[in-house]
Amino acid sequence: MSEILQVKNLKKYYTKKNIFGKQTSLVKAVDDVSFSVELGQTLVLAGESGSGKSTIAKMILRAIEPDSGEIIFDGTKISGDPSSLQKIRMEVQMVYQDPYDSINPNMKIIDIIAEPLEIHRIGNAKQRLDMVRQVLHEVKMEPVDEFMTKYPHMLSGGQRQRVVLARALILKPKMIIADEPVSMLDVSIRAEILELMDALREKLHISFLYITHDLATARYFGQKIAILHLGKIAEVGPIDDVLFSPKQEYTKALIDAISDPNPDNLTRERKIQSNL
Length: 276
Prior knowledge:
Number of domains: 1
Oligomer: single chain
Number of helices: 11
Structural class: alpha/beta
CATH class: Alpha Beta
Largest sheet: 6 strands, mixed
Strand order of the largest sheet: 6-7-8-3-9-10
Order of helices and strands: EEEHEEHEHHHHEHEHEEHHH
CATH topology: Rossmann fold
């Protein structure tokens, strides 16, 4: 199976300064991180808040520049040149954590989803309308014509996240980076959104980088997992191997930190499964 994304020895350091402008410490936000994402598969990047997950996502999209390291997407090394930037920003799309803040509340759903097509000058008005209809159908926003004319405040949190997903899909990307996409949704609809994303992965052969601190949803959605701790990869491998037979103490601590609704569930496997 071919690799769609390769991240090699990625680093991003920040310096902390006091009120006099003197450096007080060095923060290694991302410290020599390497991993790859297979075509049509989901890699979970998991870790606690502050472990460097979102910083890695921003560096992949070149929203922030890495201090060193390489990002190779679909055979192309991504740097600051216009050609590689256009490739990564068209073929890799983001689904953000907060569906309330990631879409414009003053725009109709049709305009929110069509906006990337307009930015990249894809199609005419009729073609864009047809593409919006098709992608809304893909994310199961039915009846399509009714939802297209609504505003975000008229939708539930789950429906808004479907709109965000539709906007990501409209450019037919090869990969989606999903940064905590269900953490702000009601527990009752988290599995529903993850099931939809997984079905789209299989149907459209899209790769996912799924960023999360929630190991239960990680197993539900991913095939492979990389555990991030203090900017470094602590453990990586097939998701069941890592979660049910962790080798690193940090991974064990993350799993043990999962809240268990049933105090009789003592094994790691039962604890993870009970939180799906």
